[in-house]
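QA checklist item 7 of 12: single-chain prediction sanity check.
[x] sequence parsed
[x] length recorded as 428
[x] structure emitted
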Amino acid sequence: MKLDPFGTIDSTYSNNPAATWKKLLGFGGSQVFHDPELGLWLIAGYDNVRSALTDSRRFSNAATLAPIRPLSDATAEALAGFDAPDVLVSADAPQHTLIRATLRALFPNTSARAEHAWAALIAARVDQLVDDLAGQDNTDLMRTVAARLPLLVILDILGIAADDLHTIPGWADGFLDLVWGDLGPDAQLAAAHGFVDFWHLCRSTVTTRASQPDPGPGLIGDLLRHQRGNDARLSMDKIAALVLNLTVAGWESTTGALGHALEHGLTDPHRWAQLADDEHYLATHVEESLRHSPAVDGWPRITTTEVTLDGTVIPAGSRCLLLIGSANHDPRVYGTPDRFDPGRAWLSQHLSFGAGPHYCIGAALARLEITTTLRTLARRFPHLRLADDYQRRFRPNVAARTHQSLPATTGTATRCPYGHDTSSGTRP
């Protein structure tokens, strides 16, 4: 069985992942396959994916950020300058357990805590971006909203000025393409140099803040105050690595998820109208978008021992791709899984934020960003629609599922005529 994540035609996994998930799920027998071209074991189906996600002892995260494609010698040499310690994405217990416990104490990870801490900040950033759309007949919502908001928000939360807003996206995008994409030698090298530069920026930011009498605002300041000069508690490099992890994960995954939620809303005028006024529908729309179109629809792991899963033996040391999208489209859990249905049962059981010890710590933040953006845009631009010539295109990648663009027309009205109260945190 082949995944074909880097193809260019509509029938490939790159642009039509649901067709591949359906094939994997309906193949008969085991839903665990080996892809010889990628050198990956593909794990499909809800039960199989959840089992692997929650078992980080046998399915380790150690190789999660190891490139899928072979690196050129020059790229490998450039990446030698990236010496960040494993802290979250590619860490296992006990390191991951200790780091996550520290972060959980400082980073609001429930809906109530996230709303209390960040609702006003997010509302202000959304208003800023939506104001910029006023007077524009046409826009690319990925470029103007979906890719900008999560980066602005995570930098605000970390306590970093947005001075590097134009360079960070290129660095982060390049790294994801280097790790989970299919770059040629020159693009590989450029991406490697960019990400090493990004790592050096994170490290210099943390060390500079640590040298000040007051480490300043945001999560960086909180982490440094928690550390209190004790490297045994939390080293400078670990704090810098957390900054890097949170920036890339908090920006890239939410960008993808926001793009999907916008597309699902804008393909149906009735849905778009509901997003402005119906808080229950808004919440279920976001949840169904996460289920139907996960921003991270594949997650790499590596087996630490021989594992038998769904009757198939996976050798020790095998790289695996946990197909989260297939889990969310498993008809044994979700009837008519290809249909977008915010009223369906078991909606909250999707695996788009993972499961087990590595469940996404920023899930509540992502939901808050997406709901705030949809509500505000639907109220301010009730006639917003996808452009007539819009065609769905995703960035080729084995793990991250992100729209390349979302061209849209704003319509003639810039504000909803019903006079909603759009002040921070106010609901109808």
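[x] summary fact logged: Residues 413-428 have pLDDT under 50 and may be disordered.
[ ] second reviewer sign-off
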